[in-house]
Design a protein that fits this description.
Its EC number is 2.5.1.7. It catalyses: phosphoenolpyruvate + UDP-N-acetyl-alpha-D-glucosamine = UDP-N-acetyl-3-O-(1-carboxyvinyl)-alpha-D-glucosamine + phosphate. The chain has about 425 residues and is an alpha/beta fold. The longest helix has 13 residues. It is built from 14 helices and 25 strands. The strands form 7 sheets. A 4-stranded mixed β-sheet has the order 23-24-1-25, covered by helices on one side. A 4-stranded mixed β-sheet has the order 2-16-18-17, with helices on one face. Strands 5-6-4-15 form a 4-stranded mixed β-sheet, with helices on one face. It folds into 2 domains: about 210 residues, Enolpyruvate transferase domain (UDP-n-acetylglucosamine1-carboxyvinyl-transferase, Chain); about 210 residues, UDP-n-acetylglucosamine1-carboxyvinyl-transferase, Chain (Alpha-beta prism). Bound molecules: uridine-diphosphate-N-acetylglucosamine (UD1) and phosphoenolpyruvate. The site of uridine-diphosphate-N-acetylglucosamine has 22 residues, from helix 1, helix 5 and helix 6.
Length: about 425
């Protein structure tokens, strides 16, 4: 087992390029199984979840070649319509295969997906939407079998704007007869990215990024070349890392308009953020001011994926800040770990009260999920002394070469065996 070790107290300085977005690349790779011909997908991050997706695509019969961050996928011949349970369990995004395989092959057999333990994360909206498109769904012995000779366009009303359900249903509707309208769709930038890729392949998806998405069915998709958008959650994590160490960094390959809520909250704490078209400069040399209120929300609201990193930052603010998690009921597992490092946080239902302390102290902690791990890295960078973060595999799901990236900005961070003496 490996862990990340950090010697805190070094200001981050320098410039770094942000990698492509995990949450855009995963549905895009799933969508690639719908095409005849090769797709060339650029800026795919080298992450554990991507490796699992590639394994699934190969299992289905697709040919996949890596050339650095460029992936060539050719799913002209598909040999399987089932995703094995051991692969389904490895990540949440395995669910993205359901819509595309069903649309292309008329049937798909999957089991419930895995993913971060941040809440119950049901898939009822995915299944209800597929039923509205005419799919038959049988759930037996832990498996879900979806079949449909032909999917039919339909009006689908999502009870809540689920990102994954919107993406799955857009993909399923691409080959449906007639027109599908998804009402109360999620509006995250990753949905626009998926729709752009599908449209480059010959699909007709209109309105992605708005709450009503209209899909006109087509008969066939061809492979396409496509570049994945920059990862807005990695961008936000790096902005916070610079801020918590009172450093100054520049980020390239970013889309600042995807981070409006985060930049505005950072500025509220007194951090200077300068925005250029595809660059961000962040600088501060003072302790952050407290924040009266942050509430996670569907896009363009404050992203739940940056709630825990932002809380790590607020744990050293001057005064008490209030954070409410509205999306995932179990997304406060980082709190007890931050408290081991001296943070003062009280949680009441879905709201956390963070009484800022002047300094955190290094400790042995555990990454309980991906973004909790990111929060602990931020805390470790600022803390007095050494921090050891166990369960690094969670962090590797979302941050490419994490120690190299932070190391290139001047952090003292390395990976070591968990049984190393500390
Ligand atoms: C791979 C990926 O893109 N993951 C992101 C995606 O996850 P994911 O797509 O799983 O998140 P959703 O938007 O679906 O979930 C939002 C809320 O809807 C609920 N829900 C969802 C589906 C469903 O069928 N029934 C249901 O009740 C969930 O439990 C949650 O409370 O969006 C989340 C919210 O921005 C992010 O935190 C994840 O990083
Ligand atoms: C929760 C996340 O990922 P997933 O939906 O893949 O579990 C995340 O990226 O923070």
């Amino acid at each position: 087992m490996e862990r990340i070790a950090i010697e805190g107290g070094h200001k981050l300085q320098g410039s770094v390029r942000v990698h492509g977005a995990k949450n855009a690349a995963l549905p895009i790779l799933a969508a690639s199984v719908m095409a005849h011909g090769e797709s060339i997908i650029e800026d795919v991050p080298n992450l554990q979840d991507i490796r699992v997706m590639v394994t699934i695509l190969r299992h289905l019969g697709a040919k996949v070649h890596h050339e650095g961050s460029r992936l060539r996928v050719d799913a002209t011949t598909l040999t399987h319509t089932e995703v094995p349970e051991n692969l389904m369990r490895q990540m949440r995004s395995s669910i993205f295969l359901m819509g595309p395989i069903l649309a292309r092959c008329g049937q798909v057999r999957i089991s419930l997906p895995g993913g971060c333990t941040i809440g119950s994360r049901p898939i009822d909206l995915h299944l209800k939407g597929l039923q509205a498109l005419g799919a038959r769904i049988e759930e037996k012995h832990g498996y879900i079998l979806c079949t449909a000779n032909r999917l039919r366009g339909a009006n689908i009303y999502l009870d809540l704007p689920s990102v994954g359900a919107t993406e799955n249903l857009i993909m399923a509707a691409v080959f449906a007869d007639g027109v599908t309208t998804i009402h109360n769709a999620a509006r995250e930038p990753e949905i626009i990215d998926l729709a752009n890729y599908l449209n480059t392949m010959g699909a007709r998806v209109h309105g992605a990024g708005e709450d009503k998405v209209v899909i006109e069915g087509v008969h066939r998709l061809r492979g396409a070349e496509y570049k994945v958008i920059p990862d807005r959650i990695v961008t936000g994590t790096l902005l916070l890392a610079a801020a918590i160490t009172q450093g100054e960094i520049e980020l390239t390959n970013v889309q600042p308009d995807h981070l409006g809520a985060v930049i505005s909250k950072l500025q509220e704490t007194g951090v200077e953020v300068r925005v250029e078209s595809n660059r961000l400069h962040v600088r501060t040399n003072a302790r952050p001011k407290r924040i009266e209120r942050i509430q996670t929300a569907y896009y363009p609201g404050f992203p739940t994926d940056l709630q825990s990193p932002f809380m790590a930052f607020l744990s050293v603010a001057d005064g008490t800040s209030v954070v409410t998690e509205s999306i995932f009921e179990g997304r406060y597992q980082h709190v007890s770990e931050l408290m081991r490092m001296g943070a003062k946080i009280k949680v009441d239902m879905r709201t956390a009260f963070i009484e800022g302390v002047p300094e955190l102290t290094g400790a042995h902690v555990e990454a309980t999920d991906l973004r909790a791990g990111a929060a602990l890295i931020l805390a470790g960078l600022a803390a007095n002394g050494k921090t050891f973060i166990e369960k690094v595999h969670h962090i590797d799901r979302g941050y490419e070469k994490v120690e190299e990236v932070f190391g290139s900005l001047g952090a003292k961070i390395w990976r070591e065996r968990s049984d190393s003496t500390s």
